[in-house]
Design a protein that fits this description.
Rossmann fold; globular
């Protein structure tokens, strides 16, 4: 395919009309030789995945050590439970978010992240698992677009006109 990747993720509670848009976005980007990186979870992940033929879906199988170590850097500031106390499967789910942003080996950044999440502090637990990927992307200088924020939606639409 190509070396052009984007991360398409978001809340399991993404509204239906946004899920439809996500599938269209994936199809649009597919035709422009982008490969989707996502996780396959119900909601946003599946909507992006349903619109794309070119995709890397990261699951909790074969999560590399670098991702398990890195995810600990992106724990929300208001989380009361230490990472060590997380259930093993939860740790794997969060660690795979690092692969969605940086690829399986951790050395191939996505070009951008498009997602839907509640409007809240990006460093809060309120944003959920999506926040781990978004915080990682911001740390790596990767553009992020929350389709739930009108200014970011507008910026994303402008960006799509250039691809």
């Amino acid at each position: 395919m190509t070396d052009r990747f984007y991360t398409g993720i978001g809340s399991r509670k993404t509204p239906k009309n946004i899920l439809d848009h996500m599938s269209f976005i994936a199809l649009f980007l597919d035709k422009r030789n982008y490969t989707l990186r996502s996780g396959g979870a119900p909601g946003a992940d599946q909507a992006f995945g349903g619109g794309s033929l070119h995709k890397d879906i990261y699951t909790t199988k074969d999560v590399p050590d670098w991702a398990m170590k890195m995810v600990q850097k992106y724990i929300p500031k208001d989380l009361k439970v230490p990472f060590e106390k997380f259930a093993p499967h939860t740790k794997l789910l969060l660690a795979r978010n690092m692969m969605q942003v940086l690829g399986y080996e951790g050395n191939a950044k996505s070009d951008f992240i498009v997602y839907w999440a509640p409007i809240c502090d990006i460093n809060s637990v309120e944003i959920g698992g999506t926040g781990y990927a978004v915080r990682c992307a911001i740390d790596y200088g990767i553009p992020t677009y929350n389709l739930n924020k009108s200014n970011e939606l507008k910026d994303f639409i402008s960006f799509l006109r250039t691809v």
